[in-house]
Amino acid sequence: MLVKSKRIEANATMDRTLSKNEAKVVLDFEWREQKTVTLADLRDALGASEEYARYVAHRLVRKGWLERLRPGLFQFIPKTVTLADLRDALGASEEYARYVAHRLVRKGWLERLRPGLFQFIPADRGREAIADTNPLLAGAALLRPYFFSFGTACTHHGLTEQVFAEVYIACRQRRRQEVIRGTRYVFPYMSEHRFFGFKEALVLGATVQMATPERALLDALDRPRYAGGLAEVSMMVGRSMKELSSDGLADMVERWGESALAQRLGYFADLHGVELQPALRAVLERLVRPGGKVLLGPRGRWGTTGPLIRAWNIIENLPRDVLIEKGHERRRRVRFDGEPGRDR
Questions:
Q1: How confident is the model at residue 124 (pLDDT cuts 50, 70, 90)?
Q2: Max Cα separation, the chain?
């Protein structure tokens, strides 16, 4: 019984008291509030020239303390702590940094996300040390640059009624999936020239980088496996095209520059009776390669045969009833008049 009580005591969270060195670390990270910083702010804080403020901003961006939003405007990175941060703040060895990290986790000041990476729990969370359970905030802490897209962004923007168990983070790194707090994070790779079409969004009180509705739909069309499958993506086009920006979609599709994406978007729009604006239809038709026939569904599941839809050079290798909601075999034609949107 005594052994059991000692084990329980050892695993329990300690009071949120701080030793001298722990207080030094916590105070250092408490100052890292979620706010934007301008060059003028840095110049005033340093009491130095604008040239030196630019130099400091550059170093803070490289070290991961600031993120550049646009020329002269920066945002503090979400409050995550690495062992290297602790080591630098303490001016001590990595072994001692691990010891301090362990104590801060037990005392409720840090939450361990994965080995070597922690999320700071601010003092305003109280003595109970309630961690932020927002899965997007944890995902944003894992890598940079990034933006949430595919099923995650489609759900956020209401393009689908599905709620995905996974969180999809578009990034420029090739990396394996991770499971944090029971949530699986999937990292679809994006090349540099396709890293566009996202902006800041407020999700459960946290500011994160989120694909615009138009970009989310294009990502879903490009890789349906990350958005519930081809049937669900077909329904997204039918349900939501009238809510999206025609000009925004046209700009992104043209910037994307891929025939297969244009073919799928045009095919699904026609399938669901969506009347595309002339400018968007012209972009789609211009991108379709004359001899570039593509299979609509994966050949491994649906084979390679089916009628050719000549308007979009698509081989319809799966039944249409898979792609259309029951009871809505043909929607009435919908005018597509979305307002143009701004994106990155």
A1: low
A2: 79
Write the single-letter amino acid at 263. Q
CB within 8 Å of 108: residues ≥ 6 apart: 13, 14, 16, 121, 127, 128, 129
Q: Report the chain's terminal Cα–Cα distance, integer Å.
A: 61
Check residue 141 and give its pLDDT.
Answer: 78
Q: Closest Cα partner for 211 from 203, 200, 222, 202?
A: 200
CATH T-level topology, domain 10-126: Arc Repressor Mutant, subunit A (1.10.10)
User: Which of 290, 330, 283, 331 lies closest to 310 in space, CA to CA?
Assistant: 290
Domain positions in the chain:
10-126, 133-227, 229-339
323: Cβ contacts below 8 Å, ≥ 6 apart: 230, 231, 234, 235, 268, 271
Contact 270, 312 (CB under 8 A): yes
